[in-house]
Amino acid sequence: MNKKIPIIHSIIGLFSTVISIIIFVVHGYNAFWGISLSIVICIIIGTLNGYRLNHLIRLALNGVKNAYIVLIIMCLIGIIIGVWMVCGTIPALMFYGFNYLSNINFILATFIISSFISLILGTSVGTISTAGIPLMGIGLGLGVPPYITAGAVVSGAFLGDRTSPMSSSANLTAIITQTDIYKNIKHMTSTLVPTFIICILFYFIIGRGYSVNESTIDNIKHIKSTISNNFNISPLLLIPPIIIIVMSFLKVNIKYNIISGIAIGVILAVTQQGISIREVINVSVFGYVSKDIQIANIISGGGLLSMKGILSVVVSATALYGILDGTNIIHPLINKFISNIKTVKMLVFKTIVLGALMNIVTLNQTLAIIIPGKSMASSFEKLNVSKNTLARTIGDSGTVLAPLIPWNINGLVISLALGSKVVEYAPYAVLCYMFPVISLIFAYFNLIEEKS
User: Fold this and answer.
1) What distance in Å separates the CA atoms of residue 365 and residue 401, rounded to the nearest whole number?
2) Rounded to an integer, what distance in angstroms lies between the CA atom of residue 270 and that of residue 280?
3) Coil, strand, or helix at residue 450?
4) What is the rounded distance in angstroms from the CA atom of residue 181 to the CA atom of residue 174?
5) What is the DSSP annotation of 69-122?
6) d(Cα 390, Cα 376) in Å, to the nearest integer?
7) Where are any strands of DSSP class E within 21-83?
């Protein structure tokens, strides 16, 4: 049975969590150390309120256990990046991509391509791992700073997380708010249209500053030549990402989807690049590092061990939330925060802020959907605002703000996959912070759907 935690202890627990994480991250340390300190503080608070140490440890372990699928997927992402490099898939995507993307506004094209794929796949992780990685390589060849390309990729990728009927986040939002996902998507269009237009204009303007010139063309030719000298380039190498896209469209579990991509990559590495199974296994664990310095500068990394830093953060973060939730440390503050809501403007504002705070404190996009969805439902009911608006507001905040938090699981995965730090790409991930702004503007002008 949960014990009542004094609100002062809740404040100490939550604020020490945020402050300790920020201090360690700002000073260049892995967020794991800040989270670990927070765990110690929360354990102390728990014991002061009558919880036994073994029970608190069990809560932490249950938190990690509940996230085992995320841990598995992260390991698989590290492996697939390395395998796709050594088998030639990523080099081939770059090689062919240069032919089509070098004569257009690359930044705008990156955003549109990522948006389109994410709407089909319904997953930001799938979009980033299939389209994002090769787009980063192409952008590098075109002379585009990696953080700008990453920002455009992230913007497009999280459009699908919020809006696609295939999105696990969108479906979770519908379940939590007890709404129909297709009605939600229709309702979400109202804030989607202005946000998407702003993004198009932003990336069009930014992209014009990186137009193709003679030096860029020479650089592209040199990179293509280097790639073709180090890899046997063939359309067959495009099979792995095509398979992943098709399987995602067929709603195959993302875990099996990535495993399939790895398996096909291994076959291609052996048959197309003449790489031994032993070498492929080595790359799967330690990552791909070419002996050619020029290739190593544009194509390198991946591997299971490349995930160790992120895995440590995920394990510690889920353990922390297990304690926060199991001891009710987090709930008194939430109840205090959402009390005395009397206007629609304040209702939407607090829903957005709560989604942002949950992304910061719990390091988890899923909890940034579940907690606001459950906590704010009665307030929406009292003010006669539709549940579809609740679902839209959660999509405009908890869902899309996750990649902007440096220690959030989403931000960590993206940083690893795209090779750009959150603080670097965040200013260019326009869609992620425009959605909450547009949502607030809609609330200010009372453009809110009432209950039918």
Assistant:
1) 8
2) 8
3) strand
4) 5
5) HHHHHHHHHHHHHHHHHHHTHHHHHHHHHHHHHTTS-HHHHHHHHHHHHHHHH-
6) 8
7) none
Residues 6 or more apart in contact with residue 98 via CB below 8 angstroms: 138, 141, 220, 223, 224
Average pLDDT of span 221-243? 86
* Residues above pLDDT 70, as percent of the chain: 93
What dihedral do alpha carbons 167, 170, 175, 178 form, nearest 10°?
Answer: -140
Query: In angstroms, what is the C-alpha Rg of the chain?
Result: 23
- Tokens representing 404 are 């902007």
Which residues are 450's β-sheet partners? 385
Question: Residue ranges of the alpha helices (H) in 142-180?
Answer: 146-163, 168-177
* Tens digits of residue pLDDT in 30-82: 778 888 888 898 899 888 888 899 999 999 998 888 777 767 877 887 888 88
CA atoms lying within 13 Å on the CB side of residue 440: 12
DSSP state of 328: T
3-state DSSP assignment of residue 382: helix
Query: Could you give the 3-state DSSP secondary structure of residue 209?
Result: coil
Which amino acid, 451? K
Domain boundaries, the chain: 69-306
